[in-house]
TrEMBL record:
<feature type="domain" description="Amidohydrolase-related">
    <location>
        <begin position="53"/>
        <end position="400"/>
    </location>
</feature>
<keyword id="KW-0862">Zinc</keyword>
<feature type="binding site">
    <location>
        <position position="214"/>
    </location>
    <ligand>
        <name>substrate</name>
    </ligand>
</feature>
<dbReference type="GO" id="GO:0046872">
    <property type="term" value="F:metal ion binding"/>
</dbReference>
<dbReference type="InterPro" id="IPR006680">
    <property type="entry name" value="Amidohydro-rel"/>
</dbReference>
<dbReference type="InterPro" id="IPR023512">
    <property type="entry name" value="Deaminase_MtaD/DadD"/>
</dbReference>
<feature type="binding site">
    <location>
        <position position="299"/>
    </location>
    <ligand>
        <name>Zn(2+)</name>
    </ligand>
</feature>
<protein>
    <recommendedName>
        <fullName>5-methylthioadenosine/S-adenosylhomocysteine deaminase</fullName>
        <ecNumber>3.5.4.28</ecNumber>
        <ecNumber>3.5.4.31</ecNumber>
    </recommendedName>
</protein>
<keyword id="KW-0479">Metal-binding</keyword>
<dbReference type="InterPro" id="IPR011059">
    <property type="entry name" value="Metal-dep_hydrolase_composite"/>
</dbReference>
<dbReference type="InterPro" id="IPR050287">
    <property type="entry name" value="MTA/SAH_deaminase"/>
</dbReference>
<dbReference type="Pfam" id="PF01979">
    <property type="entry name" value="Amidohydro_1"/>
</dbReference>
<keyword id="KW-0378">Hydrolase</keyword>
<dbReference type="GO" id="GO:0090614">
    <property type="term" value="F:5'-methylthioadenosine deaminase activity"/>
</dbReference>
<dbReference type="InterPro" id="IPR032466">
    <property type="entry name" value="Metal_Hydrolase"/>
</dbReference>
<comment type="similarity">
    <text>Belongs to the metallo-dependent hydrolases superfamily. MTA/SAH deaminase family.</text>
</comment>
<comment type="function">
    <text>Catalyzes the deamination of 5-methylthioadenosine and S-adenosyl-L-homocysteine into 5-methylthioinosine and S-inosyl-L-homocysteine, respectively. Is also able to deaminate adenosine.</text>
</comment>
Amino acid sequence: MSTLALTGGRVLRPDLTVDRADVLVDQETGEIGAIGPDLGDDADTVLDATDALVTPGFVNGHCHVAMTLLRGYADDKPLDAWLSEDIWPAEAELTPEAIEAGAELGLLEMVRAGITGFADMYFEMDRVADAVDRAGVRARLGHGVISVGKDHEDAREDAETGLEFARAFDGAADGRVRTAFMPHSLTTVSEAIYEEFVPKARDAGVPIHLHANETNDEVTPIVEEHGVRPLEYARELGLLEPGDFLAHGVHVDETEISLLAETGAGVIHCPASNMKLASGMAPVQALLDAGVTVGLGTDGAASNNDLSLLDEARDAAMIGKLAADDAAAVAAADVVEMATAGSAEAIGLPAGRLETGAPADLAVIDLSGPHLTPHHDLVSHLAYAAAASDVRHTVCDGRVLMRDRDVRTLDADRVRERAAAEAAALVERAES
Ligand SMILES: CSC[C@H]1O[C@@H](n2cnc3c(O)ncnc32)[C@H](O)[C@@H]1O
Ligand SMILES: [Zn+2]
C-alpha cells in the first residue's frame, strides 16, 4: 500500500469544526485512511500542511470549462444579447482542438484553485473528458443539447449525441468521470425533444442537468405559453427527479422552491455570473430554509471571469444577504458547505467531506498571508478572505495534482501557450 500524509496542519471536519490533525491517505484505494495526530512518520509521500488548513476539495457545480477561450471576449451585456451577439457566433467557429485547449486551461486554473470536482455542459465532450482524465480531477460531464435554430431532425441528432456521450463515458477515467443528459434550458430545447429524450435518459440511468429560471426574460414566455411556472413545466416534462440538478434558479417563486424541496433536485447557485449578466439575485436563504440541496458554480469563465470557488463563496454570502435584506442570511458556514458537500451532493460526485473512508479529494489552504491573519475563525476566512492563490496543494482520488503550487498533471506553460493560440485563431475565424 502506498500512502500520502498531509502533516502539521489543521483539518476542516464535516460539521465545519476545525482541529489540529494530520491526514493519512491510502493512495491505492484513493481514500482517507485516518485523521489524527502524528500520521506522517511512515508515509511514502508527505505534504506539508504547517500553517495551513486541509479542506475537502472544492466542487464547481456548473461550468462550461472550455469557455476560458472566451474570457474577456464579450463583457457588460445581459444574457440574451451576450449569447446571441457574441458568444454563440464565436462558438460556431470552435473546433475539437480549441475545446480541448480551452478545457485544459480551465482545468489548470481549477486545480490551482483547489477544485477537485466539477460539472460541465459543452460541446466535443470526449475531448473534455480526455482533459479531465489527464488533469486528474472528477467530473459530471454532458453534451449541451440545443434545438433553437435547428429543424426537428437536426435537434434529434443533437440530443442523440448527448445521450450517446452520456452512455459511453459514464465511468471513464477510472470512474472519475460520470455523465448526465444536459438539455441547455427550458426555452432553447423544444417540448418534443424533452418528450422523446427524458425517458431515454432515465432508461440510460443518468441524471439531467439544465439551466433554469436564470432571467426574467426566460421565465415570462414559459408562463405565457404554458400557463405554469418554469419548474412546474419542467416537472410536467419529467424533469426534477432526485439526482437532477439545475443551474441558476434565480427567479423561483415559493411554489417552485417547494417543488425543488419535494423532488430532491439540486440547485447550483452561480452568483458571479448572475451579478455580471445582471440576471438577478437568487433566493438562496429561502432555498436553504426549504431544505433544497444548494451548491455553487462558476458558470463559464466568460461570464465570471475566473474559475474560483473561493470567490464564488464570498459572492454567494454577499449577494445572499442583499437578496434576503438580512446580514445573517447565507452565512459563512452556509457558503463553505455549498462550495464542498452541497455541490458534491447536487451533482452526485463522491466528495465534499473530509472523514475516514471518504475519497481523498483535498485542498490545502495556506493561512500565512497577511489577509488571513489572525485566525479567529477559519470558516470565516474560507468564506470571506481566502483566494485561489492561497491553495498550496491539491489532491484528488489520493493523487497529488498540485504540490507547492506546482501542477504535476498538466504542463502549465504548454497549456497556456496552446490555449492562447487557439483563442486567437478562434476570434479571427469568428470576426472574419
Ligand atoms: C449547449 S452547451 C452550453 C451553452 O451554454 C452557454 N452558456 C454559457 N453561460 C450561460 C448562461 O449563463 N446561461 C445560459 N447559457 C449559457 C454556452 O455559451 C454554450 O453555448
Ligand atoms: Zn451555464
